[in-house]
Design brief:
Blueprint (H helix, E strand, L loop, with lengths): L1 H26 L6 H26 L5 H57 L1
Helix pairs in contact: 2-3
Length: 122
C-alpha cells in the first residue's frame, strides 16, 4: 500500500515537472510578428501620401469634386483603421513590457532577500 502511494506521489511530481515548461510558455509574451507592424506602418505611410496626392490633385483641378470626396473618405477610413490597429498593438506591447518589468523586479527582490538572509546567517 505504501509503495503505491509513493509511486503516485513520484508520478505526480514527474508529471508536474514535465508540464511546467509548457504552462510557463503559455504565459510568456510573444511579440506580434515584426512584419505585421512594418506592414501596418508601411500601409499608413502609403495612405497618408495618397491623401496628400488626392488633396494636391483637387487643389490643382485635376480631380472632380465627387471623385475627390469619395477617394478622400475611403483613404481616411482605411488610415483610421490602420492607426487603430497600430494603437492596439502598441497598447498590448506596453502592457506586456510593464508586466515583464514587474516580474523581473519581483525576482530581483526575492534574490536580494535570499542574499540578505544568507549573509545574516553567516
Amino acid at each position: 500500500m505504501m509503495i503505491y502511494l509513493l509511486l503516485i506521489v513520484v508520478s505526480l511530481a514527474i508529471f508536474a515537472l514535465v508540464l511546467q515548461p509548457l504552462l510557463e510558455a503559455r504565459r510568456r509574451y510573444t511579440p506580434p510578428p515584426q512584419n505585421t507592424l512594418n506592414d501596418l506602418r508601411t500601409r499608413r505611410t502609403y495612405l497618408l501620401e495618397a491623401l496628400r496626392d488626392v488633396e494636391l490633385d483637387y487643389a490643382t483641378g485635376k480631380a472632380e469634386p465627387e471623385h475627390y470626396e469619395e477617394t478622400r473618405k475611403s483613404y481616411l477610413r482605411e488610415a483610421a483603421e490602420v492607426q487603430r490597429q497600430l494603437d492596439q498593438m502598441q497598447d498590448r506591447l506596453d502592457t506586456d513590457i510593464e508586466r515583464e518589468i514587474n516580474e523581473l523586479r519581483d525576482v530581483a527582490r526575492q534574490q536580494n532577500l535570499a542574499q540578505d538572509r544568507a549573509s545574516e546567517a553567516t
